[in-house]
């Protein structure tokens, strides 16, 4: 860079330098909007505009360990310490969905969208149409639990449309959310909501030579640092630290030698199944994710109904329990039911029952209990009609759609869609609808009998108090007898809707079972035991069969994800003092300019950049390693040719790398601190942009020997960065990670040790750029 009066020309414009109340540990720019999401040290998530206006703040209540935006910028994924991944709405931060694909901390997230339009085998552009809207109204939302505060459940408030937009993926580009955890597991979720695969890097068989396809090794004690899925979804690059050991290597093959190598490694995973079967996976994910949403609606409906009915029954039993106490106090041995039947039969009323009806309960008490029980019964009917039944009907339809897809074996058998399992799940969805109708009949009968009982009580109280009762509703004596014998101290509604682990079957006479079996000849349900199950048990049975049917695609896709190649980057001490968070690294994919856009071949080139720890090679300290084309073309690799190229950059004297980030147009942004910075953070720093395309990359030939680190080959060709040769902007503070760079907006956010945030515009205006070139 040219000099003017001994000072560097300032290439980047400082937008602002503002104090911040919290120290930031994670920061990510929205890919489509001028929004910056940040995570504080106490795990609060902040969203700011480019002008630093804060839009919202949320606190998940658990430590936040990773952050990632959806490709369209409308939702943000948050990885938590307990293995949960939460999806939040960009507009207000409300929780859209909560998933738990991991059991330990989610250390990295990557959400990638297919860069190409969906096409069929002929090449015609195709968009998957969800036919459900043709036959059904919009899917119901979960009913609100009484006393539930908005935001406490895993879904949003009923008034929000973001959840519906999250599930409506018909016209959205195919995308996959990759998440890596602390134990080495990587999960794949289509649209961020439907889990389709899972691998563990400790269980991978890693090829060590193209000369012997059976030679492999494994990683031990590995920790994932970063994951990046290519834009064609064909490759996944994983950076991790761990120990490499021998495994399945022929001892007679002297050229192949793998010692116990602990260091920073890079894995290339074959995920081409996502591109090859994206059309099929899109349809399966569309149906399955909506079914999962609807099962939550059914579950919440059952939970709400169970609680509401339990509260109503508690009111009833609390009010009528005093009758039992009065019977005992009067020295009687009869039960409340016998006392009521005696009054119904015209016998003389006992003092206990008289005192209960006239003094304890009274007309007002009867009306209160009647309102509670019968009013709750009507509310349960509304929950069924507006939530549970519509959800069950759409579940049955979508199950049928999946079953129809499974019969197209040429397309869907390859992703594990099993017709027999889906036949069973579809039948169970139909049985759930039968149980819903059965529950409505039972509920209607129970409400009618309670209403009849309360009408009789009101007439009896009026009669005992010698008041006219002609205006009261009549009652049915036969129903009253049935109520007192079977419903007074029993609760069939609770038994049907209560979700429990107990195997309490409904008693059904043999004649009814035989009649159900006879219906098989006319296409009836093959499961003849459904009459013994409650509504809640039927739902659990349906949900279990659905999960079993979807486990096959999950297992099939997981098995088709394999490791193609291992790249040894640099050794680390064991145990190392540098952890994942202290080794700056960045992964990105750039589209090849001369690419023929052949999918899964060489349409995108991976770029891997990382700081080489000083402990790795003491003779070449303070270096940045860049590798590209790690797994660009699998066919050429098999023929002994590799596209891998790499270069080593030496950081200018007096500086050390704090963080780095790959930027658009094949640029690398380095955040450097002066080595003489004071402990109070009053030192200086700078931000440097390096043009990767201008660097002298060195081709690294394929080798069958894995006991030598790839960086060793570059020691003799180090590129020494000079402050005057690169675009450099001085920062008047000592900085800390993270460095947040937006490729779409051309801005970078730098955080200082003294709790300050500085935002720079990386892109120059065209007039300024032309003037600089003329100069």
TrEMBL record:
Gene Ontology biological-process annotations: anaphase-promoting complex-dependent catabolic process; cell division; protein K11-linked ubiquitination
CC annotations in GO: anaphase-promoting complex; nuclear periphery
Species of origin: Noccaea caerulescens (Alpine penny-cress)
Pfam family, one: ANAPC4
WD repeat boundaries on the chain: 64-98
Alphabetically ordered keywords of this record: Cell cycle, Cell division, Mitosis, Ubl conjugation pathway, WD repeat
Signal peptide: none
Domain annotation Anaphase-promoting complex subunit 4-like WD40: ranges: 28-113
Protein name: Anaphase-promoting complex subunit 4
InterPro entries per UniProt: APC4 (IPR024789), Apc4-like_WD40_dom (IPR024977), APC4_long_dom (IPR024790), WD40/YVTN_repeat-like_dom_sf (IPR015943), WD40_repeat_dom_sf (IPR036322), WD40_rpt (IPR001680)
Residue ranges annotated for the Anaphase-promoting complex subunit 4 long domain, each copy included: 265-467
């Amino acid at each position: 860079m040219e000099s003017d009066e001994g000072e560097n020309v300032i290439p980047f414009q400082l937008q602002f330098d503002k104090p911040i109340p919290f120290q930031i540990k994670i920061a990510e720019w929205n890919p489509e909007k001028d929004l910056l999401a940040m995570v504080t040290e106490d795990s609060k998530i902040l969203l700011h505009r480019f002008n630093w206006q804060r839009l919202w703040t949320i606190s998940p209540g658990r430590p936040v360990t990773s952050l990632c935006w959806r490709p369209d910028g409308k939702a943000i994924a948050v990885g938590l310490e307990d293995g949960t991944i939460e999806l939040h709405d960009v507009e207000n931060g409300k929780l859209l969905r909560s998933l738990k694909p991991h059991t330990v901390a989610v250390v990295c997230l990557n959400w990638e969208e297919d860069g190409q339009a969906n096409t069929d085998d002929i090449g015609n552009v195709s968009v998957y149409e969800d036919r459900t809207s043709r036959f059904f109204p919009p899917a119901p939302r979960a009913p609100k639990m009484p006393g539930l505060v908005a935001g406490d459940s895993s879904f949003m408030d009923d008034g929000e449309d973001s959840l519906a937009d999250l599930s409506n993926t018909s016209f959205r580009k195919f995308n996959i959310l990759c998440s890596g955890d602390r134990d080495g597991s990587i999960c794949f979720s289509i649209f961020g909501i439907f889990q389709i695969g899972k691998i563990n890097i400790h269980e991978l068989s890693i090829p060590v030579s193209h000369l012997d396809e059976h030679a492999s090794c494994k990683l031990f004690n590995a920790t994932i640092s970063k994951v990046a899925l290519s834009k064609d979804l064909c490759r996944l690059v994983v950076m991790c630290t761990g120990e490499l050991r021998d495994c399945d290597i022929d001892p007679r093959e002297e050229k192949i030698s793998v010692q116990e190598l602990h260091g920073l490694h890079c894995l290339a995973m074959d995920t081409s199944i996502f591109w090859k079967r994206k059309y099929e996976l899109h349809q399966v994910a569309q149906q399955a994710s909506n079914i999962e949403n609807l099962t939550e609606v059914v579950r919440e409906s059952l939970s709400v109904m169970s609680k509401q009915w339990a509260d109503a029954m508690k009111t009833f039993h609390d009010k009528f329990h005093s009758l039992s106490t009065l019977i005992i106090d009067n020295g009687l041995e009869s039960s409340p039911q016998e006392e009521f039947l005696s009054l119904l039969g015209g016998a003389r009323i006992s003092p206990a029952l008289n005192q209960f009806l006239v003094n304890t309960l009274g007309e007002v008490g009867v009306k209160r209990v009647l309102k509670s029980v019968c009013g709750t019964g009507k509310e349960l009917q509304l929950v069924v009609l507006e939530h549970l039944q519509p959800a069950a009907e759409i579940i049955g339809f979508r199950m049928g759609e999946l079953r129809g897809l499974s019969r197209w074996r040429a397309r869907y058998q390859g992703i594990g869609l099993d017709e027999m399992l889906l036949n069973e799940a579809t039948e169970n969805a139909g049985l759930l609808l039968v149980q819903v109708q059965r529950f409505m009949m039972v509920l209607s009968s129970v409400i009618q009998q309670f209403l009849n009982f309360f009408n009789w009580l009101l007439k009896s109280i009026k009669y005992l108090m010698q008041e006219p009762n002609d205006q009261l509703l009549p009652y049915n004596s036969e129903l009253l007898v049935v109520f007192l014998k079977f419903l007074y101290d029993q609760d069939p509604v609770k038994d049907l809707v209560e979700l429990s682990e107990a195997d309490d079957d409904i008693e059904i006479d043999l004649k009814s079972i035989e009649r159900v079996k006879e219906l098989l000849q006319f296409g009836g349900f093959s499961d003849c035991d459904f009459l013994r199950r409650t509504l809640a048990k039927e739902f659990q049975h349906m949900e279990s069969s659905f999960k079993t049917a979807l486990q096959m695609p999950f297992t099939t896709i997981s098995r088709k994800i394999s490791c193609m190649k291992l790249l040894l980057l640099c050794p680390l001490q064991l145990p190392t003092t540098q952890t994942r968070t202290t080794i700056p690294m960045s992964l990105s994919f750039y589209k090849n300019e001369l690419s023929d856009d052949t999918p899964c071949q060489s349409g995108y080139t991976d770029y891997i950049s990382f700081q080489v720890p000083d402990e790795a090679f003491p003779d070449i300290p303070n270096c940045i390693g860049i590798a590209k084309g790690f797994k660009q073309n699998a066919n050429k690799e098999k023929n002994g040719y590799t596209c891998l190229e790499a270069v080593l950059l030496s950081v200018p004297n007096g500086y050390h790398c704090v963080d780095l980030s790959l930027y658009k147009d094949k640029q690398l942004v380095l955040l450097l601190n002066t080595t003489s910075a004071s402990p109070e953070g009053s030192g200086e720093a700078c931000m440097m942009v390096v043009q990767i395309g201008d660097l002298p990359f060195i081709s690294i030939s394929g080798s069958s020997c894995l006991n030598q680190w790839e960086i060793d080959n570059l020691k003799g060709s180090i590129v020494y960065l000079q402050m005057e040769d690169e675009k450099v902007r001085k920062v008047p503070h000592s900085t800390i990670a993270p460095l947040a760079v937006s490729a779409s907006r051309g801005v970078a956010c730098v955080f200082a040790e003294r709790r300050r945030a500085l935002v720079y515009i990386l892109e120059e205006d065209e007039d300024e750029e032309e003037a600089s070139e003329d100069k």
